[in-house]
Amino acid sequence: MFKKLFLFILINTVFINSSFANLEIKARTAILQDYLSGEILYEKEPDQSIYPASMTKIMTSIIAFDLIKSGDLSLDDRFIISEKAWRLSTAGYSSMFVMVGDEVSVENLLHGIITASGNDACIALAEGIAGTEEEFAILMTAKAKELGMDNTNFANSSGINDPDNYSTVRDILTMSHYLINEHPKFYKWFSIKEFTWDRTGGEPITQGNRNPLLYKNIGVDGIKTGYLAVEKYSLASSLEKKGRRLIAVGSGFETKNARSRESLKLLTYGLTNYDLVEINKSKTSIEKIDVWLGKQKKLDVYVNQDIYKTIKKAKKKLLKISLKYQGPIEAPISKDEVVGKLHVVYDQELIGEYDLLAANNVDKVNMFTRLIKSLNYLIWGDV
After folding, report:
1. Which helix (H) or strand (E) holds 80?
2. Which of the listed residues 234, 253, 272 is the one where a domain comes to its end?
3. Host H or E run for residue 126
4. Are the C-beta atoms of residues 73 and 129 closer than 8 Å to each other?
5. How buried is residue 287: exposed, middle or buried, by Cβ count under 10 Å (0-12/13-18/19+)?
6. pLDDT score of 17
7. What does the alpha-carbon distance between residue 81 and residue 146 come to, in Å, rounded to a whole number?
8. How far is CA 128 from CA 7, 142, 180, 231, in A?
9. Residue 6: what pLDDT?
10. 270 in a structural domain
11. Active site residues
């Protein structure tokens, strides 16, 4: 028998805020993603090539974080500052103001990159890890390709002018998602508003984070600003509110104020017009289904992944979940065996299909018991 179990998600509907009904972001290119569901909520020319400027430093940080995670680098490791790095510690460049010959810890260099946006810190870190900035850029591009950032090439560690240092807002979004997902502890550093560098041979220097949205007390906790004359202003930003996270990336904002205003508008649009619905938590029992000829009559089933869907607030009633399987399931059943499918349907359209797995082993009953059960079924229809 083909059995369907429908579970309805009942949620109150809210009308869409009319002010965002026809959202237009004043940037050359922009994108907005709901982090947990991975769904894109807004995009404007998201695959148009851009010069990522200081958003490049997200990948510079990721390379270091990956190495720390693998045990190949330590926050306490110290790198000697080269003349090349020092030359960017001058007026006109974002700097943490290192000096030639200084030995600076990886931890301080990372804070100099993340909070102060130091180009000098980027070169020092790159040279310390890979020997030269050019070799480090190869590592960056290789990581980008690994993440599926197919329209990205990194030519340096800082994002300063170079025609071969290019990307897209979609790729920057992919990179930002990886940062938050794989390095949550280090991601918290992107919310730090101030960094004091107790430099050698001079008074300590305190610099503020350049991300304007950090200071608005709206839940923004990252990520990175950028500016190049040819590209104008850019920003990768992320907001977390009540367990829900959004990531926005925009480039080609005409002014600093426009960058802040339009990025905030983009994040607010995602919060105002959509809700995140939790469908399933990994390895959590969804339902008990009938078993035939087993030593237990019911079997817990689960899906081995978190499932979230982002739904328009006025349309959430149209979301349904169904379990589909040929039942009852005949024993023996092995733990983690695929016994059916979980379907997620929105407005009568299938938007997700996931394997339904057995939560435990179920042995078959002995021959005598099987005979009795078979007779009962023939006479009474009892399983």
Report:
1. strand 78-80
2. 253
3. helix 119-130
4. yes
5. middle
6. 37
7. 30
8. 55, 18, 24, 29
9. 34
10. no
11. 54, 57, 117
